[in-house]
Amino acid sequence: MNEDLLKEKTTEILNIIKESGIHYLDVCFYGDTIMITDTEKTKLCSLDGGETWQKR
Q1: Which is it for strands 33-38 and 24-30: parallel, antiparallel or unpaired?
Q2: Got the DSSP string for 1-56?
Q3: Cβ contact 56:45 at 8 Å
Q4: The CA-based dihedral angle spanning residues 41, 4, 18, 46, taken in that order and rounded to the nearest 10 degrees
Q5: Residue 48 exposure: Cα atoms within 13 Å on the Cβ side
Q6: What is the pLDDT tens value at each position of the chain, 56 positions in all?
Q7: What is the reported pLDDT for 13?
Q8: Which structural domain range is residue 33 located in?
Q9: Cβ atoms within 10 Å, residue 41
Q10: Could you give the CA distance from residue 39 to residue 31 in angstroms, rounded to a whole number?
Q11: Partners of 55 in the beta sheet?
């Protein structure tokens, strides 16, 4: 993932966190997979770089 795309996705992710009401704890990037963990250990996971999100 290049730096510009990473910045763009990070902004998107922060908005998703805000809208979802989860208490943000950690964001991990594994290639195109993005995982957000909240304080209740709920994971929001995207396998396609942030296009679709699912809870885990």
Answers
A1: antiparallel
A2: --HHHHHHHHHHHHHHHHHHT--EEEEEEETTEEEEEETT--EEEESSSSSS-EE-
A3: yes
A4: -40
A5: 4
A6: 577 877 787 788 788 777 877 777 777 777 778 787 777 777 777 777 777 777 77
A7: 78
A8: 3-55
A9: 8
A10: 24
A11: 44
C-beta of residue 35 within 8 angstroms of C-beta of residue 44: yes
Pair of tokens at residue 4? 């510009």
- Output the pTM of the full model: 0.47
* pLDDT value of position 34: 78
**pLDDT at res. 25:** 73
By the 8 A CB rule, do 53 and 22 touch? no
Count up the domains in the chain and report the number. 1
